[in-house]
Amino acid sequence: MDKSKRLFLKSKRSFRRRLPRIQSGDRIDYKNINLISQFISDQGKILSRRVNRLTLKQQRLITIAIKQARILSSLPFLNNERLAQILKKRNSAIRTTGLKKKKRK
Which family does this protein fall into (predicted)? Predict the structure, then answer.
C-alpha cells in the first residue's frame, strides 16, 4: 500500500479506554460499588460486553448487580453531574430570554 493511501485510512482503535478487570477474588455483588461503577458509562448506561471484554456469565452478573444497586439507591440511574449541567444550561437560557419587558402605553 502506498504511503499516500495509508494517511487517509483511519485506525479502528483511535481511542483506547482502560478496561476494568475482574480479579479471581472479586465478588460481583451489588454491595461492591467500586467494581460495579467501572462498568457504567459517563451517561449512566451499562457498558456492553464487547466493550468490557467480559464473559457472558460475568456480564449477566454485572448487569444484575447494577440493577439491584440502582433499586436500592446505592447507585444513581443517571449521572447527576451531567444532569445538573444540562439543567443549569436550560435555566440560564430561560433567564436570559425572559428578561425583556413590555412597554406600557
Answer: Belongs to the bacterial ribosomal protein bS18 family.
